[in-house]
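In the design runs reported in the main text, the only information available to the sequence generator was the tokenized backbone. The following block is the verbatim input for one such run; it is reproduced so that readers can re-run the procedure and compare outputs position by position.
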């Protein structure tokens, strides 16, 4: 098995025969138990090339350009929807996915808003976007009653001014940070109205000076090592940071909270590019992932919920019993979803984000 981080797949001088033996998967970083990759190769006899990315925008650029060379990719729902419209994916062949019977109708009903009939994709994982904290450090700085689970922690300049001393990371994900800022001020987080979207800018600009870095994966180790004390990031990644800190026995206590004001709920979907070199192998990989025990092994490792009902009996209590991963009814009611921005609105948001990141 070959795995690389954000590798380029520019050169494919492979023969048709070689391609048929090889499946190329492009997934998010820190999103699988690598033992599963080895198991896939052993069980199927196929060679797996497994590359990783950490941004929907990076994946989208490849998907819209075409010829990515991948057999499976994993966009989030809103990005998937836009890429389906652009013709980037091929329909799944249900006859090659017998394990699809394990899928969870509750999740399928939600992902249909991005992929009607779930014709092009299966859910891999889903989660929320929220606040990771180094509990001890944040309480030392803001006091015992620090708003650990509130957007006040990250969007109130007085708090952020103090927290900058111990380090704050934000996601470099405009389609998540802008909705969060809108939610904070009581606007519709899924607004596509440029006048409403513009209201997010002063909120983000107001705390921008105190953000050390905008990045989508470095915060896991940074939180775990105690190098930063706050990250606005993805649920399972922050829970992985919690575990890494506990394993290191370094005295760092990491906690994740979906913001009490409301959190984004998102779905990462596995899909087969229209020009995938090995669609047959892609279906073999999807069917392997859809196996209940394999899917449970993945969730148990990465602390994200999955869309596989049959896997639930194999999930450890730390996962199935944690409402930060499998939300209870009350938590679910406090989650929102978003829809893709039309191209003109997307350009406005991208411009705003460039300004925010540069701080000018
Ligand atoms: N380390 C894996 C992170 C997966 C995050 N998925 C992105 C969700 C975007 N809405």
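Verbatim output:
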């Amino acid at each position: 098995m070959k795995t690389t981080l954000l590798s380029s797949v520019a050169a494919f001088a492979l023969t048709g025969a070689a391609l048929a033996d090889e499946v190329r998967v492009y997934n998010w970083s820190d999103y699988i138990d690598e033992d599963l990759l080895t198991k896939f190769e052993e069980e199927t006899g196929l060679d797996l090339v497994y590359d990783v990315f950490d941004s929907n925008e990076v994946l989208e650029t490849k998907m819209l350009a075409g010829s990515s060379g991948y057999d499976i990719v994993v966009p989030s729902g809103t990005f998937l929807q836009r890429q389906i419209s652009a013709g980037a994916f091929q329909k799944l062949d249900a006859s090659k996915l017998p394990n699809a019977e394990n899928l969870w109708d509750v999740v399928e009903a939600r992902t249909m808003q991005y992929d009607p009939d779930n014709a092009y994709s299966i859910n891999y994982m889903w989660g929320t976007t929220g606040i990771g904290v180094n509990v001890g450090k944040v309480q030392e700085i803001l006091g015992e009653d620090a708003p650990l689970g509130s957007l006040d922690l990250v969007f109130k300049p007085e708090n952020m001014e103090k927290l900058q001393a111990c380090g704050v990371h934000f996601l470099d994900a405009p389609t998540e940070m802008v909705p969060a800022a809108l939610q904070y001020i009581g606007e519709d987080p899924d607004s596509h109205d440029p006048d409403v979207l513009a209201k997010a800018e002063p909120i983000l600009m107001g705390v921008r000076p105190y953000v050390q870095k905008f990045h989508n994966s470095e915060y896991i180790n940074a939180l775990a090592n105690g190098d930063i004390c706050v990250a606005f990031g993805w649920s399972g990644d922050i829970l992985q940071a919690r575990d890494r800190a506990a394993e290191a026995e370094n005295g760092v206590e990491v906690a994740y909270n979906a913001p009490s004001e409301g959190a984004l709920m998102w779905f990462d979907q596995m899909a087969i590019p229209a020009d995938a070199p090995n669609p047959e192998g892609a279906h073999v990989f999807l069917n392997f992932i859809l196996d209940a025990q394999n899917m449970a092994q993945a969730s148990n490792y990465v602390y994200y919920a999955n869309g596989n009902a049959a896997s639930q009996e194999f999930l450890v209590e730390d996962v199935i019993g944690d409402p930060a991963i499998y939300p209870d009814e009350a938590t679910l009611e406090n989650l929102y979803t978003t829809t893709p921005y039309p191209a003109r609105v997307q350009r406005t948001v991208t411009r705003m984000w460039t300004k925010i990141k540069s701080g000018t």
